[in-house]
Design a protein that fits this description.
The protein is an alpha/beta fold. The protein is built from 9 helices and 16 strands. The chain has 2 domains: 255 residues, Aminopeptidase, CATH 3.40.630; 111 residues, Alpha-Beta Plaits (2-Layer Sandwich). It binds zinc ion (ZN) (2 copies).
């Protein structure tokens, strides 16, 4: 009992420290040092990877078993905190507004508890404290090392301000979208605004391309598949009486499955090229792939729900999101499951008033330990 209280106090203290010291993607130097210090003091081994920020710790069980990984992301956001918390951000314009401070604290608690149970732990657990999740490419930094080579499955967690403490959101299947970016350049021929017949105006072509792109979700994608496009930037010209040479469109496409993702890219190229040609202009499409969709493996989702109930959590269906998470890059290699942990209902993530109920930390750490220590469910039984 005393031990639990002590751990709770430590985890809360660490969480508050991380909350007070948010660092942006790939700048998580102090955060990494603090994690390193806590793990080292706890006698937990850190793998010697030369990561600029972030680190990977390892707990080796004394019984044979699988190699599992737990991903905790560690970066903060360029958001100005607007809470009255006594431990609010001390770094102007930066805030842990996505709850990654909670992920760190829960991950540290999990590492410490696990290392106290090595004799009962079957297999190995790698704890990945990952940088740069908010860029949606931070996972690639970890994947550039060989840390994942022997890992057979991976767990991910995220703070969830739509649920109370004591509730976990889990389900199988797609839970977050692929987050791709595009830039379309429409090239015409500039001329005087009073003599459009002397040139080729790229503006109406760009406008028509936007209209055409919206039809992809309505006409090409299966109506039961979530998919969307947002054109978020449209730029052309410098002044009022000159028809510009070119126009640019930029935005994001979100899809849940692989085929739709490829279909969207293909249709975008066809619509942009064909529409521009119809206006006498040319279009080039730059498709910049981001993280793929996050998919919860059936067996892992089943197991995580079972263990959640055993631990006294109430389990609700996880809300799918058209947002992305680079956790999916790990899942391109191995099965994974991404679990939403209720941190008290309140403003949603990325908002200046977002906050985590600290009472969620210790139960989350204990749950993760139980999950990592539970034997795998036999095939088809989850
Ligand atoms: Zn975020
Ligand atoms: Zn996040």
């Amino acid at each position: 009992m005393q031990e639990t209280e002590n751990l709770q106090k430590k985890l809360t203290g660490w969480f508050e420290w991380f909350h007070r010291h948010p660092e942006l993607s790939y700048e998580e130097y102090h955060t990494t040092e603090k994690i390193r210090e806590i793990l080292t003091q706890g006698g937990i081994r850190i793998l010697p990877y030369e990561l600029e920020t972030g680190l990977v710790a390892i707990v080796e069980g004394e019984k044979p078993g699988p190699v599992q990984a737990l991903r905790c992301d560690i970066d903060a956001l360029p958001v100005k905190e607007e809470t009255d918390l006594p431990y609010r951000s001390e770094c102007p314009g930066k805030m842990h507004a996505c709850g990654h401070d909670f992920h760190i604290a829960a991950g540290l608690g999990c590492a410490i508890l696990l290392s106290g149970h090595k004799s009962e732990l079957a297999g190995t657990v790698k704890l990945i404290f990952q940088p740069g999740e908010e860029t949606s490419l931070g996972a690639l930094k970890i994947l550039e090392t060989d840390v994942m080579e022997d890992v057979e499955l991976i767990w991910g967690i995220h703070a969830d301000p739509t649920n109370e403490v004591g509730t976990l959101g889990i389900r199988e299947g797609y839970v977050a979208a692929a987050a791709d970016r595009f830039v379309i350049t429409v090239t015409g021929q500039g001329c005087h605004g009073a003599h459009p017949d002397d040139g080729i105006d790229p503006v109406p072509a760009a406008a028509a391309i936007v209209q055409g792109l919206w039809t992809v979700t309505a006409r090409n994608i299966n109506a039961f598949h979530p998919a969307l496009i947002s054109v978020t930037r449209m730029q052309a010209g410098q002044t009022w009486n000159v028809i510009p040479e070119s126009a640019e469109l930029e935005g994001t496409v979100r899809t849940m499955n692989r085929e739709d993702r490829a279909l969207f890219e293909r249709r975008m190229r066809e619509i942009a090229g064909g529409t521009a040609a119809a206006y006498g202009a040319r279009a080039s499409v730059e498709w910049l792939p981001g993280s793929p969709a996050v998919y919860n493996d059936e067996r892992l989702a089943g197991k995580s729900m079972r263990v959640a109930r055993e631990c006294g959590f109430s389990v609700v269906p996880e809300e799918s999101s058209m947002g992305g998470d680079d956790f999916s890059f790990y899942e391109e290699r191995i099965p994974g499951c991404y679990i939403k942990i209720g941190t008290g209902k309140g403003p949603t993530i990325h908002q200046p008033a977002f906050r985590v109920d600290k009472r969620a930390i210790l139960p989350a750490a204990e749950y993760l330990v139980r999950l990592l220590m539970s034997p795998s469910d036999p095939a088809g039984q989850s």
